[in-house]
Amino acid sequence: MNEIIRVENLHKSFHSLHVLKGINFKVAKGEIVSVIGPSGSGKSTLLRCLNHLEVADKGSISFEGQYIAKADTTGKAVYKSNKEVLAICSNLGMVFQNFNLFPHKSVVENIIEAPMMVKGKSKEAAGKIAEELLNKVGLLDKRDAYPNQLSGGQKQRVAIARALAMEPEIMLFDEPTSALDPELIGEVLQVIKKLAEEHMTMIIVTHEMNFAREISDRIIFMDDGQIVIDGVPDDIFVNPDHPRIKTFLNKVL
Amino acid sequence: MADLLNISLYILQGAVISVKIYVVTIIFAIPLGMLCAMGKMTKIAPLKWFLEMYTWIFRGTPLLLQLFFTYFGLKILLGIELSKEMAAYLTFIINYAAYFTEIFRAGIQSIDKGQYEAAKALGMNYGQTMKRIIIPQAIKVILPPTGNEAVTLIKDTALCSVIALADILRNAKSVVSRTASVEGYLVAAALYLIMTFVIIKAFKYIEKRFEYYN
């Protein structure tokens, strides 16, 4: 298996709150993994640890065999230098629940910013990629609009295009539809589906159970800072034998 | 009528020093405030502590007292003899930079942390994030309070008359004592009003240019 992400014995606390309690998992190239579970179970924190938006306390995280953080003999996570971590993490695209578009930049400027600043692309080259991506997410006509002129669904599609413009090896989605009105969720899920068809490697933290079931190769069910089940969708949706999953599914389905 | 013209021309001469203090203060205090604001947001404890003391002292004591101290106090204390103009420049720059420090710090800290996270997730380093993402947005937040300070500053320049700089107010006062009429004060008031009007308009214009997004 051509592994992209490997996480070993990951622990994370916020002050006295122990959010992640020893997480182990791997993601292979081309795999689509959804992370589900009740609120506060640590799903988002786990995702944010992968690209250094949260700093893990213990354990190891590696990307394509390179350690971002490596556990020392006591288990403590020792990170590479900020510069090295940033360089490695720029291979991980991230889509946020609240979009986090740059409000002072137009749609196309949002997309070309990082390719120009980080990858040193010319404005023309970055602009060309931006237009292709906008076409892909169906928003080419909005290229010169500002974020405040867009609906939530459109904002999230721009945010996806912005992350893709860095040509990431893997995309991380942190509840990409949770801030959207119900009628706007579909358009965002469509875009994610399109990426799935292109075999983009993805980790998706979501509450959209049907979508997760349909799109995922694997589903990770988290509860109370631990992975309870890591398996194919049918393990969770067809014959859930774990009482915590049953309780959870009864609440959300 | 000719009298009024003479009075006005005389007081207008005082506007030269007022405007000079104004321009020098703006040119130096704004960048200095920006640097101090950045300094306050670092993790370097002694620097933060020093800047905290600085803003506390200069925002916590009267500008008039600071002006006296720079001009008369330094001479007594350290034997440093500054020209009147230099004493005024120095005091106004250091005093206003303290206010700008707090305005800029608050403006930068008002930017949502999601903006930093988005930039970081895209691989942008801290310098790029500040320069391209945070500060351009902070400017929009900072403009209205900075405009307020800019208006206050032109009026505060009148304080320099106490160290015998021949500014608008001092010239107006000497006119009033000479002519024993209030015209001098009225002309001075008109001059301040004109200048503040221009400053307010200028800031309105700049703020408008940032209205394209919210």
Considering the chains and any ligands shown, give keywords for the structure.
heterodimer; A: 253 residues; alpha/beta; 6-stranded mixed sheet; 5-stranded antiparallel sheet; 9 helices; 36% helix; 28% strand; B: 214 residues; mainly alpha; MetI-like fold
Structural features, described:
The complex is a heterodimer of chains A (253) and B (214). With 253 residues, chain A is of the alpha/beta class. Chain A is built from nine helices and eleven strands. In chain A, the strands form two sheets. Chain A has a six-stranded mixed sheet with strand order 7-8-9-3-10-11, with helices on both faces. With 214 residues, chain B is mainly alpha-helical. Chain B has a single domain, classed as MetI-like (MetI-like fold). The radius of gyration of chain B is 21 Å and the shape is flat. The mean pLDDT of chain B is 92. At the A-B interface, α2, β7 and α3 of A face α5 and α6 of B.
Shape of chain B: flat
Largest interface: A-B, 28 and 21 residues
Low-confidence stretches of chain A: none
The level of helicity of chain A is 25-40%
- Biggest pleated sheet of chain A: 6 strands, mixed
Computed over alpha carbons, the radius of gyration of chain B is: 21 Å
What is the residue-averaged pLDDT of chain A?
93
Tally the helices of chain B.
Answer: 8
Q: Which structural category do the helix and sheet elements of chain A fall into?
A: alpha/beta
Beginning-to-end CA distance, first to last residue of chain A: 33 Å
Helix-strand topology string of chain A? EEEHEEEHEHHHEHEHEEHH
N-end to C-end Cα span of chain B: 52 Å
